[in-house]
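Hi X.,

You mentioned you wanted examples for the new student's onboarding notes, showing what a folding record looks like when two proteins sit in one file. Here is a clean example. The first protein comes first, with its sequence line followed by its structure tokens.
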Amino acid sequence: MRVRAFRRRWTVFAAVAMTGALALSGCGGDDGEGSKNDKSEVEVFSWWTGPGEADGLKAMQADFEKKNPGTKFVNAAIAGGSGTQAKAVLASRLQNRKPPDSFQGHAGAELLDYIKAGQIDPLDDFYQQNNLKSAYPQQLLDQITYKGHIYSVPVNIHRSNVLWYNPDILKDAGVDGPPKSIPEFITALKAVKEKTKKVPLSLGAQWTADHLLENVLLGSLGADAYNALWKPGADWSTPAVAKALGEFGEIMKYTTLEAASTDWQGAAKAVVDDRAAFNIMGDWAYGYFVGDAPNGLGKKLDTDFKYAAAPGTEGTYMWLSDSFTLPKGAPHRAGATAWLKEVSSKEGQDLFNPKKGSIPARKDADKSLYTGYLQTAFEEWNDPQTKLAGSFWHGVNANNKWHTDIDTAIGLFLQSKDVGKLQQGLVSAAKNSGL
């Protein structure tokens, strides 16, 4: 299937998924002239506190401050992998009508709750004034558009389905290269456990198990069947899903026992420190691996680590996009607009993404800046033969309620190890998703 045809079908799904949300019109509410014109500072809320991502934010902040010397930049980042802690803090602030000037969110269904609650303003005029519709790929614009209005400014594209591995440990285990399928992966994990004293598959906090699940579902079901799971009325009770979940349960037997005590950085670091054979994590890990100390590890591709598509997912790009919004009632609205200009600019994205370990959302990036793994990601994202699959954990195709219910089902599974109950929980999560 050619990606162009898939993207058309995916756009239809996105529109259906957003049905019932509260439509907002125009380009922002009336927050008073003082708020609209206040550029004295900008409070930027994100969860970019870890290695690589913090460096990227710092680089973009420096460029912003150079372009806006009279505006104070307030970094309101909250630590916690994948934004789990930050989102809880943000929800409280928005409910209490104390929004930051701009906050990070994943492009796609994750923004629906903010739209329903009238907590973010459309950015149609901003896109028009800055000629952004021609700068972004159409399939990305489709994901951030609801009833003709755009609600966020993407800064990057990430890939979720990446297998990071230690070539020396695989050699010691007698594993000939990265596994291409889920059954091959399970065989490789078993070989590492039996023939070495290393950890077969490193995991971090619970959300990394959710991240692993989406990769196993994609690798077992294939792109078409995986994407179908997120359509209204999708059946999660099928034998194919049961098989995939059984494979997930088997893979979990080879993960670290101390999984709940560390975040993704520690789990990824285990691979380059020769303690673990495999880690399945998004390509933000690349920025962490190759970045300079103190925030990066200064490791070398092909020597200290290698990468491949997660087992069973070669030829498919499981994608997500970090983006920034304009909250209704932003106290420094002009400062927020200036920040969105930075986020959407070619200069800002080319400063940010090489450090973050992602590729730019804009189409006119400086390709020479994206080397090593990032060159491969850049080429595959722009290849019309590549299939696309949205990351449910990172906000593309699951709203916040569905996201939370999946996380709850996986949390119960981590305690019980009961695959049947996990499937029941996922069936219920889909039925109660609101689609």
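Then the second protein repeats the pattern, sequence line and then tokens:
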Amino acid sequence: MDFGLNDEQRLFRQTLRDFVDREIVPVARDWEREGRYPSEIVAGMRELGLFGLVIPEEYGGLGADNVSFALTFEEISRGWMGIAGILGSHSVSSWMLAHHGTEEQKRRYLPELATGERRTGIALTEPGAGTDLQGISTVAERDGDTYVVNGTKMWITNARYADPLPVLVKTDTSARPAHRGMSILLVEASSEGFEVTADIGKLGYKGTESCEVVLTDVRVPASQLLGGVEGRGLQQALSALETGRINIAARSVGVAQRAYDEALKYARERTAFGGPIGDFQAIQLRLAEMAVQLQSARLMTYWAASRMDEGVRMDTESGMAKIAASEAALSCAMDAMRIHGGYGYSTEFEVERLYRDAPLMSIGEGTNDVLRTVVAKSLLAGKAVIS
């Protein structure tokens, strides 16, 4: 039993940490306030090869192990969680293409996705369907050697930069159960009728856009059907979301770590009643609880990532890690604000931003309550065992 990182992972983490401390931490608060898109940071991530994290080496990617994958999102989120979103949606989509695409699709897209020359995202959610993906209404009707797509997608990260954008559609609206008639089409940004219509205002998760995308009679070549076979779209998306839950769990660890760091620093420096507030037992109890939650979340996340490296199905493990880590992020962000007192509510301090970023982790890639039911059903069915 080894709870440590190997030498390669430690070096990788240090490289990431140096990049975050140099390029992200100094500008995050100001750039978020200005609503500025972080083009320079994106360029830096390209130079590090991070857009190729999950892409096999044969297509020009890093082919990184999943613990290194988690380290990436943890470190970037420690600096600015919104930046991790740019890389997260790209990675989920790239993983899906690498594992489910045809050889022609892989060779066409993966080399440029690996360098960041191309970027991508994933279009699943709709105005009337989020967690219940089988309830989507976007339809693709076959017309000769093309599909004609009509529908609206919501909350699409990287929508203005994704090319191609994988879109979950119904290719057979009469199929029962519904997932048997669901497919994913790789829609290119230049397609006529494809339009990014609005940026959605958000409490946090700034730095990256979240958009509404409308598809009106968009013609997509049949060769753009992911994997080349209809009816596999939901399974393809759900398998990719297992990696998505690892990245959400890791983002949560990054937010929790930054909250803890800021709280610890403030407790040492802030004085009241003749001494540092860290001398007060109430502050000490909060700091200790934050440390326990943070390290527990980190170990759970690395455990789930290492299980994925073993090649086993790990929807239960990734779900557990995502629940534990996102709850830790929420709790640590709140406690950091409490330790800061009135200053925690000020936009001049980092904890205010962390407090706004943390709630998304409990919602994204499956709400925590839904994931709790997924975990429970797996346990009851004997598909997962805790011992």
